[in-house]
UniProtKB/TrEMBL annotation:
One of its GO terms (biological process) is intracellular protein transport. Component of the exocyst complex involved in the docking of exocytic vesicles with fusion sites on the plasma membrane. This is Exocyst complex component. InterPro entries: EXOC6/Sec15, EXOC6/Sec15_C, EXOC6/Sec15_C_dom1, EXOC6_Sec15_N, EXOC6PINT-1/Sec15/Tip20_C_dom2. Residues 50-219 form the Exocyst complex component EXOC6/Sec15 N-terminal domain. One of its GO terms (cellular component) is exocyst. Keywords: Exocytosis, Transport. Belongs to the SEC15 family. Residues 413-761 form the Exocyst complex subunit EXOC6/Sec15 C-terminal domain. It comes from Sarcophilus harrisii.
Length: 808
């Protein structure tokens, strides 16, 4: 039962499998058949049995169907047999037709092959055309590159290379000619770099040669601009002043300054046009080279090379010529080259980006400025001509103004100008020293005579002289000073003008310029003029008359100093209320010169007195005096009288001092003559003769040779001699010894040592005289008493002298 149940269960399963086999595609039967073997044992046998039964069923159905359609099949076979005959006939016809068609198609085939070949050629041509159309732009661009290279359009050539590499070459990279072109491009780039660098070298050489012209042009432009600004400022000032006049109801006439301004403008219009730096130098090589190197990514190499070469050129430009200091053209050429160099650098700075920087130009300028200052300081020290130094200063000012217009700092140059100003003043002082010496050599040291009003006005116009008394005198008359005074005054003003020329354009205030002028003038007065005056005074051939005239001259020059101060104030436009820290030292200068001249007068007067005294020929052994004064002394007194008459134009104190000094020196000389150690003995007759000479001196002193002395002041110069001689003439030794040391002593001015020396000489003279007169005089009682008296006086005088020495 169990097996029967399993068989019944397997039957539906086998039917399902058979249905799947019938309905499923043959390729997918495998899984279905595999399931047969996966079932229970003997399932395969049962499936086969079921399959056979199914096949038999289908055969039966096929047989039924065939039986149903058999008649139709027979009819179809019969018709098919009939058709076979017709088919054979058709086959023969088709074969014949095919043969005919084949024969006829051979020509068509041949033409078709030609057409195919032509079509292939056409396709190839089309392909070639397409490729050529792709290659032609490359070839055209490469040809354009060659043309640009030949035309030296290197920057455009580099652009073309870039287009070729980025756009055109990728399209035709498979062709060999493209590879050749690609290989040539680096070489072309190197060629362009070399050519552009060669152009840059030519440019650097060109600007080196043209630096002088560029600098001259730039300095000329700066100078013209400065003149234009000055003229414009003057016009504005004149217009302002004209407005003020019109406001006050006055219409002034056109001034000379305005006329000169218009004239300047007309001249400026007629001048040829000044070329700019772009007109003188072609900067395209440096632009082109910069663009090329920038495009090639090698800008740093180019910048380094350019800066290195320009620094070398800067060192060459800054190297002066050995004889530059000899002419102003040497300095002008030096400045022009430097200005040309930095004008080019400034232009490069502003028209290029990065080739030169502000920091680079500042560094280069600072280096150059230090070198320039050192060169100018060294070469200007050789200049001895003030005109050359002044021209150098003007060149430095134009040089500084030009570079300042290009924003280069130039303060150190103006500081250098102050050093050169001191040197300029030194050269001026040397020049004016020669001028003063020439004036003094040509001066006749006599008052200036004027014969008429015209000559008088000429002198007044040259020198500020005011004397109402002289104006009242009729012609001809004389100025008290000599011709050198107005000449010196004029030359001092010329010196101030010359010094002012250097102070112009130094960008200093009027107060500073005024102070500089005063200091320069002080140096002229205190050093140069004072030295010339001192040398003049010390010259051996200058006599007393000339010395007196020098004193008069210095007095008038001293009075003229205030006019010089006013002159400086006027030319510097400084108000009178401004307090100056610097004043003219002319007063002290002329006072010193006058004191030197006065001292020289005293010295020469004493020397003249010594010359007369040396002519003295006393007979110191004479027994009796001549009864009149010595001849040398009378000549000396006459000389002193005439000399002191010349002193009437001198200040009173000078004449009095000279007279007193002369009398004191004469008194001292006479005293020294008596006390001369070589003079061993003096007779009383010689003492009496000497007394007569001293009396003449006293008479001269009492005659008031120079007015202004009070009482017997001048006679006191001979008081020592007078008391000494009175002591010997009166032989009043008892009074002298008794009153010695008393304030009211009659012989207060007689020194015991002096009295002792002269007494010993007189004693020896008396002894000698007695011996000559009488050999037995020594045995006379009076003589013996006198000898004893003298010996007693000598002992007392020696005790006084010893007492004085011990007290001392």
């Amino acid at each position: 039962m169990a097996e029967g149940g399993e068989g019944l269960a397997a039957v539906p399963e086998h039917e399902r499998i058979l249905q799947e086999i019938e309905s499923t595609d043959t390729a997918c039967v495998g899984p279905t058949l595999r399931s047969v073997y996966d079932d229970q044992p003997n399932a395969h046998q049962k499936f086969m049995e079921k399959l056979d039964a199914c096949i038999r069923n289908h055969d039966k159905e096929i047989e039924k169907m065939c039986n149903f359609h058999h008649q139709g099949f027979v009819d179809a076979i019969t018709e098919l047999l009939k058709v076979r005959t017709d088919a054979e006939k058709l086959k023969v016809q088709v074969t014949d037709t095919n043969c005919k068609l084949q024969d006829a198609g051979k020509e068509v085939i041949a033409q078709t092959e030609d057409i195919i070949r032509c079509r292939i050629q056409q396709r190839n041509i089309t392909t070639v055309i397409e490729k050529l159309q792709c290659c032609l732009p490359v070839l055209e661009m490469y040809s354009k590159l060659k043309e640009q290279m030949n035309a030296k359009r290197y920057y455009a050539a580099l652009k073309t290379m870039e287009q070729l590499e980025n756009i055109y070459f990728p399209r035709v990279s498979q062709y060999r000619f493209c590879q050749i072109m690609i290989e040539n491009l680096p070489k072309l780039r190197e060629d362009i770099k070399e050519i552009s660098m060669s152009d840059l070298k030519d440019f650097l050489e060109s600007i080196r040669k043209h630096s002088n012209k560029i600098g001259e042009t730039a300095m000329k432009q700066a100078q013209q601009q400065k003149i234009f600004n000055i003229v414009l400022q003057k016009q504005n000032n004149i217009n302002m002043s004209r407005t003020m006049y019109i406001t006050n109801g006055k219409i002034p006439e056109e001034s000379n300054e305005v006329k000169s301004t218009y004239a300047f403008e007309e001249e400026d219009e007629n001048e040829e046009e000044v070329l700019s730096v772009q007109d003188l130098v072609d900067f395209s090589p440096v632009y082109r080279c910069l663009h090329i190197y920038s495009f090639l990514g090698d800008e740093e190499t180019f910048e380094n090379y350019y800066r290195k070469q320009r620094k070398k050129q800067a060192r060459l430009v800054l190297q002066p010529q050995p004889n530059m200091h000899e002419t102003v053209d040497g300095y002008r050429r030096y400045f022009s080259q430097i200005v040309g160099f930095f004008v080019v650098e400034d232009h490069i700075l502003h028209v290029t980006q990065g080739l030169v920087t502000k920091a680079y130009t500042d560094e280069l300028w600072n280096m150059a400025l230090s070198k320039i200052i050192a060169v100018l300081r060294a070469h200007s020290s050789y200049c001895t001509d003030p005109d050359l130094v002044l021209e150098l200063k003007n060149l430095i000012v134009v040089f500084a103004d030009t570079l300042q217009g290009y924003s280069f700092p130039v303060n150190r140059l103006f500081d250098l100008l102050f050093e050169i100003r001191d040197q300029y003043n030194e050269t001026l002082l040397k020049k004016w020293a020669g001028v003063f010496r020439e004036i003094f050599e040509e001066d006749n040291c006599s008052p200036i005579p004027v014969a008429n009003e015209e000559e008088y006005k000429i002198i007044i116009s040259k020198f500020p002289f005011q004397d109402p008394d002289l104006e009242k005198h009729s012609f001809p008359k004389k100025f008290p000073m000599s011709q050198s005074v107005p000449h010196i005054y004029i030359q001092v003003k010329e010196f101030i003008y010359a010094s002012l020329k250097f102070s112009e354009s130094l960008h200093r205030s009027s107060t500073e310029i005024d102070d500089m002028l005063r200091k320069s003038t002080n140096l002229l007065l205190t050093r140069t003029l004072n030295s010339c005056l001192q040398n003049l005074i010390k010259k051996p051939h200058i006599g007393l008359t000339e010395l007196v005239q020098i004193i008069i001259n210095t007095t008038h020059l001293e009075q003229a100093c205030k006019y010089l101060e006013d002159f400086i104030t006027n030319i510097t436009n400084i108000s009178q209320e401004t307090v100056h820290t610097t004043r003219l030292y002319g007063l002290s200068t002329f006072k010193d010169a006058r004191h030197s001249a006065e001292g020289e007068i005293y010295t020469k007067l004493n020397q003249k007195i010594d010359e007369f005294v040396q002519l003295a020929d006393y007979d110191w052994t004479m027994s009796e005096p001549d009864g009149r004064a010595s001849g040398y002394l009378m000549d000396l007194i006459n000389f002193l009288r005439s000399t002191f008459q010349v002193f009437t134009h001198l200040p009173g104190k000078v004449a009095q001092t000279a007279c007193m000094s002369a009398c004191q020196h004469l008194s001292t000389s006479l005293m020294q003559m008596l006390l001369d150690s070589e003079l061993k003995q003096i007779s009383m007759g010689a003492v009496q003769q000497f007394n007569l000479d001293v009396i003449q001196c006293e008479l001269f002193a009492s005659s008031e040779p120079v007015p202004g002395f009070q009482g017997d002041t001048l006679q006191l110069a001979f008081i020592d001699l007078r008391q000494l001689l009175d002591l010997f003439m009166v032989w009043d030794w008892s009074t002298y010894l008794a009153d010695y040391g008393q304030p009211a002593s009659k012989y207060l001015r007689v020194n015991p040592n002096t009295a002792l020396t002269l007494l010993e000489k007189v004693h020896r003279g008396m002894k000698d005289t007695n011996k000559k007169n009488n050999i037995f005089a020594q045995f006379r009682k009076n003589d013996r008493d006198k000898q004893k008296l003298i010996e007693t006086v000598v002992r007392q005088l020696r005790s006084l002298v010893n007492g004085m020495s011990q007290h001392t």
